[in-house]
Amino acid sequence: MRLQSKLRRIAAHTTASFILAAAILLTGCGGGGGGAPAPSNSTSQPSSSPASSSASSSSSSSSSSSSSSSSSASSEPEQTDGILWTYSKNNDGTATITGYDKNAAKTPTGEVTIPKVYKGYTITKVGSSALNGNKDITRVVIPDTVISIGSQAFYNCTNLTSVSFPSSLKNIDGSAFAKTNLDALTLPATITNVGGRAFAEIASLASVTVQGKTVFGSGVFSTCPNLTTVVFQDSIRELPSEMFLNCSKLQSIKFPGDVKTLGSSIFKKCVLLENITIPDTVTTIGSSAFSYCTSLRSIKIPDGVTEIKTGTFEECSNLTNIVIPDSVKIIGEHAFHHCSALTKLILPRGISEIQGTAFWYCKSLKQIALPENISQINNQVFQGCVSLQDIYIPKTVKQIGSNAFDRCTSLSNVYFGGSEAMWNEITISTKDNGNKFLTNPIMNRYWNQNYTCIR
């Protein structure tokens, strides 16, 4: 019995000594003493991050199993200013901000700064639809590392009133800022491309300044109803289609130097545009370029333009004076359709074709002399010209189309460039009796006249 009791005391003492030694050893390895620290799986944020304190905090608290920064960057969202941004890596080793976690505790509100560096990657792009539909942001600061903004990146951010473009920015894709609340816009000279409708449907936008040789997409400022001032500070060769479509308060524009082309419907429905000086450098004016400019009163087409295209001045109901140069060869369909205030028009002699409905319902037109080179008067070309009294028709005309002079109830005098025999050889359409006012037997007809007889 004594032996057993002694053995139990020795065993208990040995166990206690072992436990004490183990505790001392563990304390030494825990970093409280001079031993080496235990390895960690957390990936710290590079010191170059503009929001390093919040980014580092987020990285430390949310890191899991990745031990390399590239692995962490590809799989772990990082919190910056309380915002969990999402991103994708680019082929050149940079990254694109693609959006943000809408379920995070904080989402972008008020003034928002796009991060310059995120998860160790330099941010060079704001991706398509990155902040699309965010109603809470009011101002955006884009860092000087960003070179491109994707399509619809800030589309329908209806409370966004200001954006800061860096000098690094080169490209803005289509509809990037459409339906925002910007009131003034200056595009730096470094921007080389702005996509279609990038700034369309901004009801608050009042002024635009373009500092460089930017190439624009279609409809870039369309339906900005309060846009009144546009200034181009450098030469731009082409202004695209629908650029200012439906800008109902636009009254004047300072064109860029060396502009060659005005796109189709560029000023369509600019209802307050009264007078406009088109630069002499322009050689192409697109179809419907000035259609429905109901306040336009006077315009001079520059020498070098060869065609007045379909609907160019359609429904310009107050247009009274237009100068057409000798370079024009073709007048398209509906070119002057419903120019109801136009009383007289001098057409250059070089015109070889006037297409159907070109002067449809020019209700105040009283006189016109057709050029010597045309061979036919097309369908409905003067239909509804109820005030037309005098017309000169050259001897080169061989055919007059259906309803060419329909409802020309005031037509009184026809001056023909050839003889009566030549007149009788012209094929005049009798369809719907639409040319009865031209063929009326009591019409005054004058033979062997010339182009200047009613000028």
Automatic annotation (TrEMBL):
<feature type="region of interest" description="Disordered">
    <location>
        <begin position="32"/>
        <end position="79"/>
    </location>
</feature>
<dbReference type="InterPro" id="IPR026906">
    <property type="entry name" value="LRR_5"/>
</dbReference>
<dbReference type="InterPro" id="IPR032675">
    <property type="entry name" value="LRR_dom_sf"/>
</dbReference>
<dbReference type="Pfam" id="PF13306">
    <property type="entry name" value="LRR_5"/>
</dbReference>
<dbReference type="InterPro" id="IPR053139">
    <property type="entry name" value="Surface_bspA-like"/>
</dbReference>
<feature type="compositionally biased region" description="Low complexity">
    <location>
        <begin position="37"/>
        <end position="75"/>
    </location>
</feature>
<protein>
    <recommendedName>
        <fullName>Leucine-rich repeat domain-containing protein</fullName>
    </recommendedName>
</protein>
